[in-house]
Amino acid sequence: MKAFIFILAFLIFSCTSANEIKWYNFEEGLKKAKQENKLILLDISAKWCHYCNLMETTTYSNPEIVSIVNQYYIPVKVDADLRKDINKKYNQGGLPTTAILTPDGEILYGNLYLPPDDMKKVLMYFAKLSKEELERLKQQKNLASKPNLKLQENQIDEDTYKLIKTRTLSLIDKEYGGYYDEVKFPIDNIVYFLILNYIENENKENKQILTKTLEGYEKLIDTEEGGIFRYATKRDWTSPHYEKLLRDQALISVAFFNAYSVLNDKKLLEDANKILNFAKNVLYDSKNGYFYGSQGADIVDDEGKILVSGEIYFSKNKQDREFLESVYRRKLPIDKTFYFAENSLMVKALVYSYIFNNNSQDLATAENLMKKIIKEGLKDKGIIHTYSVKKYFLDTQVNTLESLFLLYQVTGDNFYLKTFKDLLYKVLKNYYSREIGLYTDYEDTGLNLNRISYIDSLVSINFKLAKVIYSYQLLDNNDLLEKTKNSILKRLINFNSVEAGLSAYLYLKPPLFLVYVSERKDFDKNLLSFFPYWNVALSFSSKDTLLSKIGYSYEGYPVVYVCSLKLCFNKFEKSKITKDSIKNVFKKYLKSN
Length: 593
Prior knowledge:
Among the domains are: 24-141, Glutaredoxin (3-Layer(aba) Sandwich), CATH 3.40.30.10; 511-590, no CATH class. It is 50% helix and 13% strand. The chain contains 23 helices and 21 strands. A 4-stranded mixed sheet has the order 2-1-3-4, sandwiched between helices. It has a 4-stranded mixed sheet with strand order 19-18-20-21. A 3-stranded antiparallel sheet has the order 7-10-13. α11 runs antiparallel to α12. The radius of gyration is 25 Å and the shape is globular. The model is unreliable at 1-18 (pLDDT under 50).
């Protein structure tokens, strides 16, 4: 049997077609399409994407399609991770995105995965259209694609808050957890909304909705090697697609750490570590000190054609997976690009490991990684996307801001606070869109409101920005920050997503500050032992100049103030504060506020 597999592998490698599509990058393709007055076939894909591999294996290897494309089209292939600007403009809701463009880059048609027969029909239909028909179609498509965004600021009062919460809860699948969709993605913000809902109303029903969501996410964890898969194709979280993206490992491990802190279920801590350890063991480049972008779903050849599908590979135990790798002399592909945004997310996950695992090495790795991000990525308009694509995207800035502030909380190092402040004001100055009243990428290519599962949406990244601003306001509560934060939140409640519910919470029941004052500055991980997502712990020495500025005092012994921006609710002697005492304050605060 093993000999047969070796022969089969050899034959697969030997049989490559000379008649292939010659793909151009976006700029080259656009230039050539204008010169030759040809339509553009745009393929947006990613190295980790199963359906992209499948389309390469079937559709783009079909001789008829190769012939049609080479005769009538300028073929353009774009890496969705590298060129987020193009992906944002043209993505049709997932990968692969298949689009037909005019020679000047205007979209005529968009879809996702297309099998060979469907692709032939699409290609021949557009190839046979007259110049007048193409122009009419372009005008219709342009009108239809313009987003009708009228994001007015709406007041958030108690009645609005209740309405938004009810609307947000209606989005959640009560039977299986997560969004009420047939295809299920693990989304961290769903967990945070459900945790807040549970703390505010601690009953059996609310706990069940939260635990069902976490149990759904658990089904996507690779039991053999750890890490979490990108999504499940069935509503009950089964039949996963097997890509493992760095951003998911970072975001969902942090969500599990937070859930563990609230529910005290050690299985959740184990889940967090299974996900995080995969990133540390498989995606970390210890020599260069950063994390790779992703692990692909399938074993593929040099052209991206599938040799072993993820469905087969991940059904095996670790030993059998290694055997398949030895047969094909290939492993699952790793995208070794250094994406600054995703590495900033990993900084946060590593700090959480320090908090919950007492892992000092992970904190050291996080600090070294953040200093690398700042040294090599920080330019005049913020943090760049990658070494090779020096563009500025909002998610990179906000992810970095979030991790910088967390590092300041944990280490007390003013380097992180100063860098945070400088980057924050760069974002406020350079990334605001007057058209919609929210923040967008520095070079905005137009709004794409499709829910794209593997990138932060306009809504989620603006919510994260508002929350980052709030965390900093205790140290610098000026009118600009207050106005900016509130304006974002009053617009986000217009959307039909969990971020609307989180925005209502952030406006009326925002995170608590735990302000620890002692003779010497001394961070205590205990302060973040309960729901650190909604808990801003800051440490000060008795001589800290910031302390008098924000209105707190040293009373001759270590003390912890529990406060909002406007007033303090409790004062604890440091020696008497526990996770349970913090939890009780949160419960009273969320229920009564």
